[in-house]
Amino acid sequence: MPKPGRLASILRPFGLIWFSICLHWEALTEAVRRDGLAPLSHPQQIQDAGSAKLLGITSSGFIAYEDTTIVPSFVQAASGVVLELGPGPGNQIHRFDVSRVKHIYGVEPNPQFKGTIDALLKKHGLQDRYKLIACGIEDSDVLRAEGITEGSLDTVLSIQVLCAVKDPKNVMKEVWKLLKPGGKFIFWEHGRSEDRLTAIAQACWNPAWCAFVGCVLTRNVLADILDSGEWENPHEIEKPHEPISLLPRIQGVLIKKKA
After folding, report:
1. Nearest to 166 by CA among 47, 78, 11
2. Are 82 and 154 in contact (CB under 8 A)?
3. Any idea what the Cα angle at residue 83 is, between residues 78 and 84, rounded to 5°?
4. Which is more confidently placed, 100 or 35?
5. How far is residue 239's CA from residue 256's CA, in Å, rounded to a whole number?
6. What angle do CA 166, 93, 249 make, to 5 degrees?
7. What residue range is the signal peptide (predicted)?
8. DSSP assignment, residue 34?
9. Residue 2 pLDDT more than 70?
């Protein structure tokens, strides 16, 4: 199948944004029918419900696309004690190599995904190997209660997550602290394009994309990752050539520098 041209790539976000608007409206009307006007004072709950609907419905499409990329092999490279950032609807759960993984912690601040993830863990027999924690990686007290402390993790996995967190710089500093020396940060992310016209299109779409899809198109993900601490192999980060994509990827397996 031929790749879309520049105009098609620029216009592509509209479809997902409109679909998400419809799902957020559906989430709002369901909440109002159930609880009256009370949900209007809790917009984050509506946002969480709408996001869960969007990512749940599109999950199979994302999985199929990721199957054509390096993502499956990246997830299989996770080993030891693993922390998965923002598992969402659990798209990566079936990809973990259980022979290499001791335990997996899924850190997900949106509680709406719990039912979906629990069902997937049961389906793949990972109930005793994977624990979902309803918090952000910045919630150190919650993580500490689970035994996740500085230098305790062998692997942190981040698949399309740094675009969606509120403060990626702080998230990456926490990632670096929690990793053992020699631990792996495995990531497949998207960020600001190096192509000028594409970057302009990203900036134009970004307000609506942020509001309804839930992530940022214009972040300098590479800087956020590299500024978090010292890595042994920053030269191995890959930036595939995607000049017209509004979701250009950056990917790699970074090793935390040993003292």
Report:
1. 47
2. yes
3. 80
4. 100
5. 20
6. 50
7. 1-31
8. H
9. no
Strand locations in the chain, DSSP E?
Answer: 80-85, 101-107, 130-133, 153-159, 179-190, 249-255
- Beta strand ranges found along 26-163 (DSSP E): 80-85, 101-107, 130-133, 153-159
- Cα separation, 78 vs 185, in Å, equals 9
Question: Residue for token digits 């389906």?
Answer: 123
- Which tokens in the block code for residue 152? 């305790």
Angle between helices 43-57 and 59-66 (to 10 degrees): 50
Is the pLDDT score of 130 beyond 90? yes
The domain spans of the chain are 6-256
Domain 6-256 fold is Rossmann fold (3.40.50)
Residues 62-96: tens digit of each pLDDT: 999 999 999 999 999 999 999 999 999 999 999 99
Q: Which residue carries 């199929």 as its tokens?
A: 64
Could you identify the residue written with the tokens 């500085």? 150
Place of tokens 């998965």: 84
pTM: 0.94
Chain mean pLDDT for the chain: 95
pLDDT at residue 218 above 90? Answer: yes
* 95 token code pair: 């990809």
C-alpha dist (Å) from residue 174 to 170, 180, 232, 235:
6, 12, 18, 22
